From TrEMBL:
Belongs to the cytochrome P450 family. This is Cytochrome P450. The keyword Plastid does not apply. Coiled coil: none annotated. It comes from Oryza rufipogon (Brownbeard rice). Gene3D superfamilies: Cytochrome P450.
Length: 556
């Protein structure tokens, strides 16, 4: 098989070099390289056999901006990308098309085998990697679990503990030491601890520098990176051949997935034994007698087989480990550039705490946030700031489906069976046709000026979504696959924002830097978010971690 890979690579190079000679006059900018490409839609300049491979190769390091430019130039905010080695792809930033894909013709746009092939080794048959009846069954189960008060209460309890014992003490130490902290790294470790405690009922301790590096967290990081490179590969056959040969990155992926599976299956077996002992001792299950509230334990109680529980739990760890940390990283960066917005958010946090009776000094300031779920739901300004952050920097830059049958989108774009159909959240957030002439600006007014009423009457923060279609703002998808964890994600983000901002002032190490947005499985900030930390106001001494040491996150 090695000779086949070498031959294919050589052929690809020859074709690309030949094509470049034919198209030296073609510009990589949208103005001269996009238009009616002769493949049934607006898109990059294409040639026989190779399609738009030349333009794709030239723009491979700026795909997000390239796609955004072409979509903005397209009369329908839709383009067709057809290139050698890949499926015909329809990319859209048109809300009517997004609604058609996610709701009106939902059954015709499953994730599809090309998608599940990429993620299958890690996610197995979990909810994010299946379609049809299996998806419906898992969705029904998970909808029930996410609506259970016990799981939401567990999230707040875990957030309080993680912030009290690790996040706040670590940032306090950084404020005294004067070193540099990578907030992106801090937020990722915090999020991994939280999602593992909520999903698995175990504490990996990633944010505790007194503990050794966790193998499970490293395995998730490595596996996610390799999976992301699979999805971004210009020719899928390359990684598939490597997997068949058990070579290179695919061998490493198999090893890391083995670590993850072994750890989760070990927990499942341990939890089943624990549950059996409870039954033998007459303590029962179902929320009493020492029963756990984490997702894994609740699924065991529902009677699901071990492998189904494993795949489901891994899916939720993957969904929750980096999405909130990605959004919060960009949120803190944007607030450091817009101090006026930061002041508005701080005023709302202080007002909410006063209304709750949680003073700025004394009381529970060092022991917890003193706020409940309803308090976080009422934070309208903070909600708007988070929504605006994710409009410009969505945790997932794009999402793809695969057409089960021929179709025509509302804007007239033809879709063939098997075509990849992508709605492009990153580009949608920058479309003047959707958000107006100030689409590139960070402005809370576009959310706070929306009419209030209906759901907003019960939850003022809900006004940030009132009148905004999920198909115009598909950060949490829309239609039947709308993200079940949306409310839990907002609670976590508001909790962290409140806990950090009211205690500390973050200052960027490089004031003039505009970091690059990197769209892997979950987007992240290239180079991290390096800041210095200062105490905002005098506050009571924070509690220390259980081992009596205070976390250090600074680096020289």
């Amino acid at each position: 098989m090695a000779w086949f890979v070498a031959a294919w690579s050589c052929l690809l190079v020859v074709v690309m070099v030949s094509s470049m000679r034919l198209s030296r006059s073609a510009s990589s900018s949208c103005g001269s390289s996009c238009g009616h490409g002769g493949h049934g839609g607006w898109g990059p300049r294409s040639y026989p056999v190779i399609g738009c491979l030349v333009a794709f190769y030239r723009n491979r390091r700026r795909l997000l901006d390239w796609y955004t430019e072409m979509l903005a130039a397209s009369p329908s905010q839709t383009i067709v990308v057809d290139r050698l080695g890949a499926r015909r792809t329809v990319v859209t930033a048109n809300p009517a098309n997004v609604e058609h894909i996610l709701r009106a013709r939902f059954a015709n746009y499953p994730k599809g085998k090309p998608f599940t092939d990429v993620l299958g080794d890690l996610l197995g048959m979990g909810i994010f990697n299946v379609d049809g009846e299996l998806w419906h069954a898992q969705r029904k189960l998970v909808s029930h679990e996410f609506s259970a008060r016990a799981l939401r209460d567990l999230e707040v309890t875990v957030l309080e503990a993680e912030a009290r014992d690790r996040l706040v003490p670590a940032l306090a130490a950084a404020s005294r030491g004067g070193g540099v902290v990578d907030m992106q790294d801090v937020l990722r470790r915090f999020a991994f601890d939280v999602i593992c405690r909520v999903s698995l009922g175990v504490d990996p301790g990633c944010l505790d520098p007194a503990l050794p590096a966790r193998r499970l967290a490293a395995a998730f990081d490595t596996a996610a990176g390799i999976i992301a490179r699979r999805g971004a590969a210009p020719v899928a056959a390359v990684w598939k051949v490597k997997r068949a040969l058990d070579a290179g990155s695919e061998r490493r992926l198999r090893e890391e997935v083995g670590v993850i599976h072994e750890a989760v299956m070990g927990l499942i077996r341990s939890r089943r034994k624990e549950r059996a002992l409870l039954l033998v001792n007459g303590n029962g299950v179902g929320g009493g007698g020492g029963a756990r509230s984490d997702l894994l334990s609740r699924m065991i109680e529902c009677g699901y087989p071990d492998e189904a529980i494993r795949d489901m739990v891994i899916s939720f760890i993957m969904a929750g480990r980096d999405t909130t940390s990605s959004a919060l990283t960009w949120f803190f960066w944007l607030l450091m550039r817009h101090r006026g917005v930061e002041a508005q958010v701080l005023d709302e946090i202080a007002a909410t705490r006063r209304a709750r009776g949680a003073g700025e000094e004394g009381g529970d300031d060092g022991e917890g946030e003193g706020l409940d779920l309803d308090d976080y739901r009422r934070m309208r300004v903070l909600h708007a700031a988070l929504c605006e952050t994710m409009r410009l920097y969505p945790p997932v830059a794009w999402d793809s489906k695969h057409a089960a049958a021929d179709d025509v989108l509302p804007d007239g774009t033809a879709v063939g069976r098997g075509d990849r159909v992508t709605y492009f959240q990153y580009g949608m957030g920058r479309m003047e046709a959707i958000w107006g002439a100030d689409a590139a600006d960070f402005s809370l007014d576009r959310w706070l000026s929306l009419p209030r009423g209906g759901a907003a009457a019960a939850s003022p923060a809900a006004a940030a979504f009132a009148g905004v279609s999920p198909f115009k703002y598909p950060v949490f998808q829309g239609g039947p696959r709308t993200c079940l964890g949306k409310e839990m994600a907002f609670v976590q983000m508001k909790f962290v924002a409140s806990a950090v901002l009211r205690r500390f002032e973050l200052r960027p190490v490089d004031e003039g830097r505009t970091p690059a947005f990197v769209p892997l499985m979950t987007a992240h900030m290239a180079g991290g978010l390096n800041v210095t930390v200062r105490r905002r106001t005098p506050a009571p001494a924070t509690s220390t971690a259980a081992n009596g040491t205070e976390g250090e996150l600074t680096s020289s």
